[in-house]
Amino acid sequence: MTTETAPPAAKRVPSERTHHGDTVVDEYAWLAAKDDPETIAYLTAENAYTDTRTAHLAELRTTLFEETRQRTRETDLSVPTRKGGHWYYTRTVEGQQYGVHCRRAVRDGEVEPPVSADGAPLDGEEVLLDGNLLAEGHDFFSLGAFDVSPDGRWLAYSTDFSGDERFTLRVKDLTTGELLPDEVPDTFYGTAWSTDASVLFYVTVDDAWRPNRVWRHTVGSAAADDVVVHQEDDERFWVGVELTRSEKFILIDIHSKVTSEVLVIPAGNPTGAPAVIAPRRQGVEYAVEHHGHRFLILHNDGAEDFALAFTSADAPGDWVPVIEHTPGTRLEAVDAFANHLVVSLRTDGLTGLRVLPVGSDDSYDIDFPEPLYSVGLDANPEYRTGQVRLRYSSLVTPDSVYDYDLVTRQMVLRKQKPVLPGPDGRPYDPAEYEQHRDWALADDGTRVPISLVCRVGTPRDGSAPCELYGYGSYEASMDPWFSVARLSLLDRGVVFAVAHTRGGGELGRRWYDQGKMLAKKNTFTDFVACARHLVKAGWTASDRLVARGASAGGLLMGAVANLAPDAFTGIVAQVPFVDALTSILDPSLPLTVTEWEEWGNPLEDPEVYAYMKSYTPYENVTAVDYPAILAVTSLNDTRVLYSEPAKWIARLRAVAPGGDYLLKTEMGAGHGGPSGRYDAWREEAFINAWILDRIGRA
């Protein structure tokens, strides 16, 4: 890398805070002032410095972007999904950033979803919403709600043009194509229609960005006339709203990290008062699905990995078991159809689907051929159906859409995401790649799974470079997924690996519990154990190993940089939660109070304070030889504030000045980064070029 340009100097303005007798000095707290011109000037200077430091990679970035583009069918059409009298689908068009949302009427005798040649519009299609037209004149565009009313007449949709996840909600008349005067600003995700489509429910957030209110809006009326249906005053909880697949009930979901409660309103009586399915009890989580005369209850009451029960839909009360708790088999969701239930689950680190025919004890699990894969239900809006749509992929199998017959057990591939020939002109062949499941041994003797993919013939003598990805929080599982952009790394001899650390959900609820609160450090030591194992097993060497993670996975990146800087040659931290203690101490910040049941409450508990202070990356920067670090963030991120990585990089430069640290800030995006697909490809090309440079494959 070139080194002619010095990084921008971050001024030091000491700020002190004292908790539990401990005084902490924060020299870079001023960077949290988003509206201060000095902050913007500093971030802009950091971007300029990063541009200069990576200028030699410009040609490689262009090459990687073009490889992704070349392998992608840019004009394409999703498999249409039937709902009522229409097929719904999304099209993409070459050269356009966003999808075009469409529908087409079902024709007489039409059972199979219609197809088109090379992603062309279907004959007779109706364009419901064109994201490219909506995004005109904006650097960022995101669609929040996209909800067609049960009668197919209205479309409720919401838009965000800054990345802060506050949406403006509108209603479109699909008969005339006209927008109604209804317009509701500052809404959140989640909408639900009444049966007759006269009423629309939606969600708003409080000043801390916590979804706390469910509203009722009468179509055709002013937003000022809307009524609050439920307001959640306990700051640990957030709310959501949805219409059941049966279209019989509006569900208001109320959750904290460890407790939940569900309220129900008959969709045919939208002005009725919400009724409680089961009052909240601390530590008991449950979710509700309507099925005929009953509500299905997926819960953890005396069932660590969850069980399935039901209660009366007319008079909710006792829970009658349907699937008893089985330790090691984590039940994650239940989807109800008229004659079948489909349970999403995971066991032995893999996802799965179990079918329960109504009125029969002949339940069965659907089989899949690969040793590593991800499977789950796709959009299935029809309640009365004998087949379900599912989505399948693996590290070598592109995203695949299947229709599965619940009676005959036949599975039909409707579409596999096309992977067009790469730079060598050869079509993609999964047989040229191999995937593996390996296991590392953590410090406490726990076996930690690792998923790997590489080209066939990749040497196992330590000479291959490797990217190791990790997350490990919120019970989120990093199940194997296919990536077109990743092929550019694999074809350059890179091994891609995922460390399934504790704190994730890969091995059930206990796996999650062993990586949160006062056991959080297991996430970090597990990741380091995986890195050491990859070297010991010959997959790579530490001077050819790059770690990568995002959001809470960015916290993981910062923690392992402090814990084992010698284990990596580079670290990529995207929207990283690296100033965790400062954020969790401030209940006025977005989402802080809701996070206390994930990390602990350092404001009230001295033990939690001391524990978090011992691992939070920003607090623990020391004068050691760090690997090269690339931090990527977004100015309008409301989940992890841009100031966290900005402060972290500034402190790294001050305390360990010999290192190579870069900060890249998207000045018009949110937590997910750039919104357009081409912009997202360019950002991925930027990161992959940096990785290839670090491992000597640029």
Automatic annotation (TrEMBL):
SUPFAM superfamilies: alpha/beta-Hydrolases, Peptidase/esterase 'gauge' domain. It comes from the Bacteria. Residues 8-416 form the Peptidase S9A N-terminal domain. The keyword Protease applies. Keywords: Hydrolase, Protease, Serine protease. Pfam families: Peptidase_S9 (PF00326), Peptidase_S9_N (PF02897). Residues 481-695 form the Peptidase S9 prolyl oligopeptidase catalytic domain. The keyword S-adenosyl-L-methionine does not apply. Residues 1-20 are annotated as: Disordered. Belongs to the peptidase S9A family. This is S9 family peptidase. It comes from Micromonospora zamorensis.
